[in-house]
Amino acid sequence: MAAYYYNQAAAAGVQPVLNYKDKFPDGSAVWDVERGKANTIRRVPWQTDTSVSFSSWGYVEGKDDYKSPRSLVHDLVDIVSKNGNLLLNVGPRADGTFPDAAVHLLEQIGAWLALNGEGIYASCPWRCYGEGTTRSVQGQMTEKQNSGFGLGDVRFTASTNASRPAMFAHLLGWPRGGGGFKVRSLGVAETVVGVSLLCDEATHVQWQQARDGSLELTLPATPPSTCEHAFVFRLALADPPAKPTFAVGAETASRGTLAALNNACLV
Q1: How many helices (H) and strands (E) does the chain have?
Q2: Contact in structure between 67 and 52 (CB atoms under 8 Å)
Q3: What is the dotted CATH code of the domain comprising 2-252?
Q4: CB proximity list for 34: less than 8 A, separation 6 or greater
Q5: Is 33 helix (H, G, I), strand (E, B) or coil?
Q6: How far apart are CA 166 and CA 85, in angstroms?
Q7: For 25, 84, 121, 160, which has the most beta carbons within 10 A of its beta carbon?
Q8: By three-state DSSP, how is residue 185 classified?
Q9: Residue spans of beta strands (DSSP E) within 53-107
């Protein structure tokens, strides 16, 4: 069946996208994880599909169990850092209108993307997806097994703009009281030439790169008033950002092993 659709699309000169849950070989279509995520970088794009509500895909009168904009932004950043896309469902009422709470939630996510979209849109995975102690449980219907991200959790993405080499460090919490924050995953050959905060580029960010490559940021006690949910630092690089390295033959192994060999920079 998949071959038929792919062949018909090729004959029509269009690029199809076929999603599946668990019954196709890796690489034959886009792996879709319902209310769950991948726990690592995958070689080919994949997708999380989930809802703004914890318990329902549709509108349920009197039920108000919406997720927070912070948790959804964090999920988006975590997913994109692993080469994934987020498909977010919003359930309308019977008359086609959306509840005010759902609209407000989407507006807040949109406001965050308006300031920080450079680290999401047209980005690609860096050679590792993040730092910190929080790891995602992988698989279908696993989102309730995942706890929130902590103050030390960071996720990385990389720019695809060859004329402006850069990577992005998404801090999923602002250090209490500010002060020093160290990004440890940069190597000695990865030279940072500038640092800026996407949500408020007027803010001067003090930074210093150590001989081992690690980057020390000196942050104010509180983030700028325009910044919330996740704090994205653009790290301008002297050379193009590194890419993940994948295991040879991983696509023939078990689910989820189209994964980078060195993507777990978590420290």
Answers
A1: 3, 13
A2: yes
A3: 2.60.40.1180
A4: 21, 49, 50, 140, 141
A5: strand
A6: 21
A7: 84
A8: coil
A9: 84-89
* Residue recorded with tokens 């097994």: 145
In the predicted model, is pLDDT for residue 243 greater than 70?
A: yes
Contacts of 151 (CB under 8 A, 6+ apart): 172, 173, 174, 175, 176
Report helix, strand or coil for 148. Answer: coil
Q: In the structure encoding, which two tokens stand for residue 59, read together?
A: 């509108």
**Tens of pLDDT, residues 137-155:** 999 999 999 989 988 999 9
Helix H or strand E encompassing 132:
none
Measured between alpha carbons, how far is 135 from 193 in angstroms, rounded to an integer?
30
Distance CA 124, CA 157 (A): 6
Backbone phi and psi for residue 182, each to the nearest 5 degrees, phi listed first: -105, 130
Residues ≥6 apart with Cβ < 8 Å to 55: 63, 65
pTM higher than the cut 0.85: yes
Question: Which tens digit of pLDDT belongs to each residue from 46-62?
Answer: 999 999 999 999 999 98
**26 pLDDT band (50/70/90 cuts)?**
confident
**Mean pLDDT across the stretch 61-70?**
92
C-alpha distances in Å from residue 199, one per residue of 30, 209, 225: 32, 22, 9
Q: Which residues contact 230 (CB under 8 A, 6 or more apart)?
A: 70, 73, 74, 77, 112, 116, 170, 171, 172
Joined tokens for residue 73? 């932004």
Q: Which helix (H) or strand (E) holds 183?
A: strand 179-183
